[in-house]
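Re: weekly structure request thread

Next one in the queue (333 aa):
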Amino acid sequence: MKTGVALRTPESVRAISPKAEKPSNMLGRSRINRMRRELRRSAPLYIILSIPFLFLLVFNYAPLFGAQIAFRNYNPVQGIWGSPWVGLQQFRQWVDNPDFWPVMRNTIVLSAYSIGVGTPATVILALMLNEVRHQKFKRFVQSVTYFPYFISVVVLIGMMQLLLSPGTGLVQEIFTGLGLGQVPDLFGSPGTFAHLYVWSGVWQTTGYGAIIYLGVLSNVDPGLYEAARLDGASILQKIRHVDWPMIRPTVAILLILSLGGILTVGFEKVYLMQTPLNLATSQIVATYVYEFGLVQDNFSFGTAVGLFNSFISLILVLVVNQISRRVAQTSLF
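Done, posted below.
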């Protein structure tokens, strides 16, 4: 019996529709064409992105090739490949060095002191500025606290010396005018080195660091503040129940990063403040590597100390990140 409907086999379909012969190839070509259009449209962005990529490649990844001199008795004449392999000898020399514990202690104390003072100061400044309602005064305070960040380390140390010099400094002139006698040599005192380093850093960087927390606080729902006001919450209660929960994850992330770099105290500032009189507390890992690794041409030893610090910093980041994940439910990864 004829139904009037012709049955089409796959061969007849391909014969009628030659364009549908290879749909997978057509899909592949369309994807390639779409990718080409995207690349042409985004070409300027990729060119801009290539600049920092090349910077990282040249200055961060390429030097990793030379890190092997930490495991060799490096000699510039023999080169990296020609220098004899000594394994972990340089690392054992650093750990067994009598200066190991004093230098590590100075570095950890100075870095922990900076974090312990700088982090609360930055958070408090951000919370205080967030409560200011007079916008002109708020911008003025932000400018005043942010300006020191643009002062270079060399200029900062020069200012400190002009102020605190025991003979001709401004503080000495004030003491002399008030009849208070001679100002002690604060730069030469081992006991005051850490205080000068940390508090000058707080003055210089607190305003800059507060910008991060102010950016987070600017995203707080105004309805939360209105609800707190209607409930009769005081300023401290509002900060505790509204502001602090908002910035706590950011504080945790920045604290993890800070603790990860606890052994990498800034070299420039310490080196400029360092004198033979305060060397007992100012000798840190960075200045020690410079003195015994570069000045004395012991490149293998200096590289070994740097790799040792990097390994300890990595362990600290992993440990602190895990603790933060369990305690504060916030982590880097």
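Residues 15 and 61 are 58 Å apart (CA to CA). The chain has 16 helices and no strands.
Next request, please.
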